[in-house]
Specification:
Elements lengths: L4 H55 L3 H14 L7 H24 L1 H9 L8 H23 L3 H23 L3 H20 L14 H13 L2 H21 L2 H19 L2 H16 L3 H38 L6 H9 L2 H17 L4 H22 L5 H34 L1
Length: 427
Amino acid sequence: MEVSDASLKKDYILTIIVQFMVLASVFLVYKLAAEFLGTDGFSGYALSRRTISLIQSALLMGLGVGIPRYIAYGYANPDQKNPDAYFISALFILAPVVFIFFIFFNLFNGTFSYIFFGSSDYSYLILPITCMIIGNILHALCYSYFRGRLMMMRANLLQAINMGIIPPAVFFLFGKTLSSVLTVTGIIWILISLIFSLFLPVRSRECDPRKMITYAKEIIGYSIMRVPGDFALSTLLALPAILTAHMTGVREAGFVAFGTVVFNMGGYFFAPISTILLPKASHMIARADYEGLKYDLKRMLIFAICLTTLGVMILEIFTDQLIEIYLKENFFETIMIVRVIAIGIVPYAVYILLRSIIDASYVRPINAINIVISLFLFIIGVLLVVLFKMNYIYIVGIFVISIYVLGILSLFVVRTIFKRNKSCLSS
């Protein structure tokens, strides 16, 4: 499966356009949450979305990385008779896991409400949250397959509809209560993902049932090693809000959750590049084209650091005015949170850009190890905050420090990759 430079450029441009559309949708959705649901509803929505991201990362079992990698490698390797067998075997493993999760979470909804919201009073949100998680997982599976085949037109259309159009549309049509917004969004995500699944060019008839266990072991063996990293990153992003919910309440926790949304927007800018970079890097590494990969990555990295630094400077200067325009006067408590958390956007963008190179280069979960180290440092810092009874804003500061650790570790690993392969090529 050869990919021309012109085709790759077109894919980058299209993916960036769609990602900016999704970014605009995220901005609009939180503004609509503030207007339609009020301060408490806004906080509940922000905390719900952060909870969904946390649980989804564990349930996907790293297949968001494993599927595009093995599909891309398989179609680039002429000796591989049917790369789609990896995708089919992944579905058979994931289906019962998601079913058990749905039953378990809804049976013990009061317990999980207390864990994520700091109170069992929010147990009525667990069913809507599980609907959104299932919709998100179906979306991720279709999107991952399209990525692996570099069918970015289909992948971007799915992304634009599910993540760009549906969330704000639901607010306009069903935005009376928080539970209705979450439930309807989840149901529509499920339906649209099922429709797109009909257009997956999966060659299921060519699969040898006797080899499915081998394929399943291979893709799960690769993907499951990334679960600790995916879950640790989602935990790192979710813990500031969840801990704040237990320390002060859902209202303040929602403001912190919104702060992490603003923080994540730095990653949104470079997620399109990372999205295409994993299968593309897999191709280049398979051909041992490290010089070409290094040249492309260096340009991207310089651009990312310059752009995010400029963005952070603008955000720090105009946070007051932006919050007043965006969320009105009831949300001034978010100003300090946004200012502190914005400092971590630059190293987070660096991590987002480099993680695909690391995943394409190693079977070992190096990204996961880096994230776990950062999470461990964050937990130590939080224990100090609790021990000395500090304000919850210190948790946000410790979170930023842990993100800097993650960015520095990612830079070190990528530098090692190119240094090692330069030595191999010259010997």
